[in-house]
Write a structure and sequence with these properties.
With 354 residues, this protein is of the alpha/beta class. It has a single domain, classed as Alpha-Beta Barrel (TIM Barrel). The protein is built from 10 helices and 15 strands. It is globular. The two termini are 34 Å apart. It binds N-carbamoyl-L-aspartate and zinc ion (ZN). The site of zinc ion has 5 residues, from loops.
Amino acid sequence: MTTPLPDRITIRRPDDWHLHLRDGAMLASVLPHSAKQFARAIVMPNLVPPVTTPEMAVAYRDRIKALLGGPSAGNTDFTPLMTCYLTDGTDPALLAQGHKDGIFTAAKLYPAHATTNSAHGVSDITKIDAVLDKMAEIGMPLLVHGEVTDPAVDIFDREAVFIERVLISTLKRHPNLKVVMEHITTEEAASFVLGGGANIAATVTPHHLVINRNSLFAGGLRPHAYCLPVAKREKHRLALRKAVASGSAKLFIGTDSAPHAREAKESGCGCAGIFCAPTALEVYATVFAEEGALEHFEAFASLNGAAFYGLPPNTGTVTLLRERWLVPESLPAADTTVVPFMAGQTLSWKLNGF
Ligand code: NCD
Ligand code: ZN
């Protein structure tokens, strides 16, 4: 017998452990969507140019904070947690100093050319072994975009191959390094993380719990379903849902909300990235409800990530109401529009107060 769904779910205020906020006018437009849902977010450093120094991170953090409390920016107490974009030339001492000074919460590994704005990424992970040694020593988390960039590897296999070719050997060289495998998309990644040591965790996006690779081609080419790592076969989506529904403390929210102007997505060479911030919490709640795992929703949303990062959980709560609402077809952003995840579809949970 299935338990009837509650009419409302109240959880401690959640965090987003992987978010692209962009900069300038786009930042101003998308920030309120995250600030209303989340208390803190790990802010990705893949700006142009990337955020590689403590000075750049402080300046970016200031630009974000300056918008909070503005005309429509929602919570003024939203806290951006900054990350350092690792390159072949990252200086371990400077990175450690940035962490000590409370500027860099974590550091982000983009294999060079893996995704949007990653040209400056790391060309070979062994080149940053000294950086990883330092991070392991000080307990600074490494956030990994886990895909190989070898063009000979099929795009749907790049995550699984990254685990085999890069991650396993990296963890052998740095057994105490804290690693977040970000936006996992495969059965292989889920079982690797769940079977790994306490120093290995993962984020899961709302969209990878909902779409599979068929969604990219449903009735035609669907640019708004395209992100990296790309959605995989149905069996992988089901494995991800099973993993989060298991209540594992190693899994937590990381929306990977990655807005791009509509015209940059609907193009002959459309950008990778799904703008899921406006619907993230509602979609996660739907998944946990559908899986009959609502008892694990709060830990996934609000406790597991903070515990992994060694941060206190937030105070305060948010409430989701079991109420149907239509996700807008598009939202204004900068001087254009962005298309949110689930645009034009009806969701069955709604964040109270918005
Ligand atoms: C991200 C972006 O647009 O910045 N895109 C995406 O598809 N997720 C980059 C990334 O995290 O891969
Ligand atoms: Zn991302």
